[in-house]
Amino acid sequence: MKIVKALGTLAFFSFILLKAGGQGRNDQGSKKEAYLQNPFGNALVPDMIADASIQEINGTFYCYATTDGYDQGLKTSGPPVVWKSKDFVHWSFSGFYFPSAVGQKYWAPSKAIAANGRYYIYPTVNGFMYPAVSDSPDGPFKLAKGIDSFYLPFTPATLLQSKGRKEPAGIDAEVFIDDDGQPYIFWQLRFAAKLNQDMVSVDTASVIQIATKRPGYSEGPAFFKRKGIYYYLYTLGGDEKYQYAYGMSKTSPLGPFEYPENDIITTTNYERQIFGPGHGGVFNLPGTDDYYFAYLEYGRGSTNRQTYVNKLEFNEDGTICPLDLTLKGVGALHTAPSEKRIRVVSSKASSVRRGVIIKPRKDSLFKRTESFSSQFAFDDENGSRWMAAAEDSASWIMADLGKLQLVKRSEVAFVRPTAGHAYVLEYSADGRAWKDCGEHQQLVMESPHTDKLNIKARYLRLRILSGVNGIWEWHIY
Questions:
Q1: Where do the F5/8 type C domain residues begin and end (predicted)?
Q2: Which domains does the chain have, with CATH numbers?
């Protein structure tokens, strides 16, 4: 009992995972799996994303974000995809919304800002902010100035223009349009300015650096207005030490700002093992006073982060209540047609990757272990995943539905879906004789991969032909 008290419940389970986690080649749904825990909770989407900008447009939620999980730290990123949802629970994407930016280092896109009859977005590409434009929030977006192509280190299409030989410094654009139609932009290191009405150039005479209560490096600004009060949110630190602080103004988006006594609204929660809640944003449900905060969590170290959402609460004087952080998610924000999910009784896989101990970078109290059991593909939590062993060149995962029954549809959310997957889906009544019922023989970049089936089966088996050998979630209807 002394060990449990010293390490805490989650740390204790991490210890158990090291002893009992998926160490072998075969995953047969053994009793060992009863001990497996998911320390990552229910992330917003079944993928690694960070720096999320979320909004609702015409009844659909859009999430523009940095695509993480490409295993090269800050040297690269995944491609630009926009996750969409009708209910805030079931998310999907298909293809890329900014074609010319595919293959570039694509970070921290803003929300899609409606102006001049079009939509503008402001990602950081190869380390510089660029304005892009489209007729639809779905894209395709293209550079709003000059030729729609990128080259290193930067092109003349950047939002901020360089002076002499200096680079046009600045990342992490956040754009806000006030009630009078005046647009503003906020970016790294507490800078802010008016945007011109063309939405692609900055009023350089208005540039300021906001004097915040807390000094130090800052990025990932968020900005919104509620009941006549302007809120400016800025980050502090990074990695496990990420935090968000804020100021308020009743005068102007450019201040002056006042800083409440309790101005830190997100910080590490050791009791719940939530580390480094950082770069994200605030969104509101149109026509309501419901505000939500999306943030990345340090997760698996480096650029292997996931995004979570908690509701914002306010005091009567307009100050923000520090967030009661959880990794559970906020559930459905709009109703969607309900559909009966088939429960998976047990699962097997060709192999399971060995458990990974995630090492701290700035906080020695950060201790987390990830395991990769096949059961995680069916736990309805986007923070856990099944991964095949690295040496497994013919990976598969099988779902036992308990009895022969009608199966209408399969939806699979693969690991690293933005790089694409090819697969074969098979079904069986007895687990011995198998028939094909779905497939993608070529790489397809989407999530989830959906197959309409209308078959009778007790078992489904998915064989991965190309792409990362892992699944976040597999839903069967």
A1: 345-477
A2: 2-37+339-476 (2.60.120.260), 49-312 (2.115.10.20)
